[in-house]
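WARN retry 2 of 3 for item q-0093 after timeout on previous attempt; input resubmitted unchanged.
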Amino acid sequence: MSLQVLKSGLLDTIQDRGRFGYAHLGINPSGAMDTIALALANMLVGNPAETAALELHFPGPRLRFELPALFALGGGDFMPRLNGVPIPVHTPVAAGAGSVLSFSGIKNGARAYLAVRGGFRLEPWLGSRSTNRAAGAGGFQGRALQTGDLLAFEPLPELEKITAGRRQRVSSWSLNTSGFYPPGPTMRFCAGPEYDWLDTRSKHLLENNDWLITPQSDRMGYRMQGAPLQMAEKQDLISSVVTPGTLQLLPNGSFIILMADSQTTGGYPRVGQLITADLPGLAQMLPGQHIRLCPVDPATAFATLRQQDQLLRKLQWSCTLRLKGYGLEG
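OK item q-0093 returned
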């Protein structure tokens, strides 16, 4: 009833939707960088969308299922193989006992999510199983997985019948994820509290320039490079609230887009806020890629998020019905 790490990957951590309600104590949400991929992977195996899963980066890990398991991979396609045989992402897969999951390359995306039916058996910290590496808490011992670790999950006796003696069984259906991510490199943002501190030229650049994701980008934030932005006049800002998606203007004229492991407050001007619906798309982009920023109003941001949530609900029902064909209730 466990998943054994035969070889650890670049950064394998347990993440769920995040840890909320503790920002006033300086504890950030953490959670999945791509919450859409997390939700879809969970739906494919009949879990609630917010169930904790394994967030993977490439090079990915090599994992062995000690008992039969129903799993799915969402998000980036790292060319997964089960027992050496290529398998698709966004598709439920039944693995027999002893099956080995590995990854051979990056086809697309920056992060993948491995969800196992029933979820991993881990104790929550402050209401969440997300890994907070800075605090050394949550997830699996508050850290990234290491070679030799064992992740327990709920055994499913009915999977013996589903695999029917085979080492693996790949479902004939999968999910189309195209409606969840921006169709191109353009990300939408709303003006931040200090947006009007920018001079006219910098506002134009922010909204019309290409921005490079630099190698100094991680779960804390994406550092963007392009033409330097300037304030109309020098002003000081006391430390103020920031959240994932906040665009912070740095003293050198570049900016950072804060991500899942961002701090809870900061002293740099907040010139924009990436809309929540587009954060998963940014999370699947790699250093060396470019984005553009398109301004929208808050009403558009909320409407887009509602549409995304409605589509997720429809897919949840669809997955539930499909899983009943396996004799599994979603």
